[in-house]
Every structure is written in structure tokens, then in C-alpha cells.
Amino acid sequence: MQVSSVQEMVARASRNVEQVIVGKHREVELLLIALICRGHVLIEDVPGVGKTVLAKAVSKSVGASFKRIQFTPDLLPSDVTGVNVFNPQRGAFEFRPGPIFAQMVLADEINRATPKTQSALLEAMEEGQVTVDGVSHHLAEPFIVLATENPIDYEGTFPLPEAQLDRFLLRVAMGYPGKQNELEMLARQHRRHPLDDLAQVVSIDELLFAQSAVRDVHVSPLVSDYIVTIVESTRRHPEVLLGASPRGSLALYNVSRAQAAAQGREYVTPDDVKSLAEATLSHRIIVSHAARVRGSSGAEIVREIVRGTPVPGANPRVAPVKA
User: Fold this and answer.
1) Cα separation of 282 and 227, whole Å?
2) Are residues 154 and 237 in the same domain?
């Protein structure tokens, strides 16, 4: 599959999802970019803005098997991964897979589960397999976790540890739709929900080919240096306790290639990096307590770093030489 085919596939899937999700073109695009990067997405926002509907619409559009896990404080790791059950007829234990065995898994309100249950996702997200009683079970491809959390309600929640946050390729915030988009949403759902009639427009084979094609997108040494410079700057920023890891550099590198392919280009530009830096890096840094008190956030710090990092190939402004 050529990059032009990737562009057409992403556009087709995006149009289909936007029959359900109104006024969120960039958010839909980011999820599709993560999908062709084989990456996981953390969707943060208040309840009722369409996080779950977005996940369902994307899964229906690409024909992926879909499972939803409602994370609660009493959820056990075995409720996610599965469990071995004794079969008296066979006189042996049989593995009964949990809901993690799907191509697209919605981990709803992931921060409401205990750290032990949250950690049950780590192996699946990183290695595409789960281990139960010493036996590894491989997950189907493609495999993507879409986790949601409410950033406002902290009562009864367990914040995701840094190791878990680092496994998410992107963090996306939905936001409110705006008045006109909300009016259109009401009109579309007057008689029935558009999700009920949403058709599959992308095959799994197309998606797998797109994931391979993205690897052929060229990244120049200058752009690679630009990526690493931005990531390194998060480690030296005075308001940051812990900067982005090398996994952050790889993530920004890969999503930039995916966005280039989604736009029909065989090469990455600095603009790709700039537009994706916040979604890729902001959840990977720990802001100091003093900075949080002043109202600083990871997203603001990443935006500041991007603004202050020289773009490769740009001509610096030089004061005219006086005669």
C-alpha cells in the first residue's frame, strides 16, 4: 500500500466516524493516527462528551472486534485478562479469556481501578500478550487500548503511574462540541442513534497494510534531531521533575510518520512534529508541585518548549547591517 492509499483510507474512516462524532475532526484523526501506529490512546475529559461513542464508532468503521471494560475499585486482574477454570469432564484446567482479548478494548474510567488491576494492562499494551499462571496468550492484531478517565473527579480514583502513562502513544481531550455542533448532534439523534447504522468502511487487511506502509515514510536527520531536541528540553525544563523518556522520542517519531502518510506525504515535516508534540509528550512529564500550584500543566510546558525550539531549515532573523 502506497501513502496515497493510506491517505484515502484515513479520509474514508474519518468521514464515517464523523457521521456520529460531530465537530471533532482532529480528535478523530488522532485516534486513526494511533491506530495505524499500533499505539494506545488515553482519552481525558468530563463525562458525556462522547469518549465511549468515539471508541465504538472507530471500531465499527474498521471492523475490529470490540470489548468494553468498566473499571471499578473491585475489578480484579483476572476479570481483565481471563482465568483458568477446571473442567471436570476433561479433568484439566481450561483458559477462559477475559475481555482484553479483542482488537479494540475500551478501558472505561481506567483510574477507578486499583493499581494492581491497572497493571494487568501493562503486558498487553507493551507486548500484545497476557500471561496467566505462567502461560502466555497472544492477542489478536491489530490491538489497541482506548482508555478513558475523568480529570475532574478524583474521589475514589487511583492516578495512573508514570510507567502506565508512558505506554499510551497519545493523550486526547474531547472538549465540548460548541453550540452549532451540539444542535446538529440533536438533529442527527432525533429518531435513532447514528451509531446503530454505522457501516464498516475499512477492512482489517487494509489497516494492517497501512501499518506497514507508515514505516516507509522518510524522516530526515534534521527532523529527527528536532524531535530529540524537543524531548530533551522536557528533561531540562525548570518546572519539570521528570521529563519524557526515550519512548517519548520514538512515539513522536512514529506519529509524525503516520500523520505524514495520512496527509499523502512520503516524508515528515517539522509541522507534523509541532502539531503532535503536545498530544504525544504532555502526559509523559511530571510537573513540579510549585509549578502546578501556579497553574502550569504538562501541555503548557510542551507548547512553550515547541515555541522556543528552532525549526530545522528556518532562516533566523538577522538584523540588517548598517552601512
Assistant:
1) 14
2) no
Chain centroid to CA 293: how far?
28
Taking the chain (323 residues) in consecutive chunks of 10 residues, what is each chunk's mean pLDDT?
82 91 89 92 80 88 90 90 88 89 90 86 87 87 88 72 87 85 84 85 90 92 95 92 92 96 93 95 90 85 93 59 44
CA distance 35 to 120: 21
> What pTM was computed for the model?
0.87
Task: Indicate if 20 and 101 belong to the same structural domain.
Answer: yes
Q: Is residue 51 one of the residues assigned to a domain?
A: yes
Q: Judge whether 303 lies within some domain.
A: yes
Domain-located, residue 316: no
Assigned domain for 314 exists: no
231, exposed or middle or buried, with CB in 10 Å at 0-12, 13-18, 19+?
A: buried
**For residues 66 and 100, what is the distance between their CA atoms, to the nearest angstrom?**
9
C-alpha closest to that of 289 among 245, 244, 243, 241: 241
Round to whole Å and give the CA distance between 214 and 25.
Answer: 21
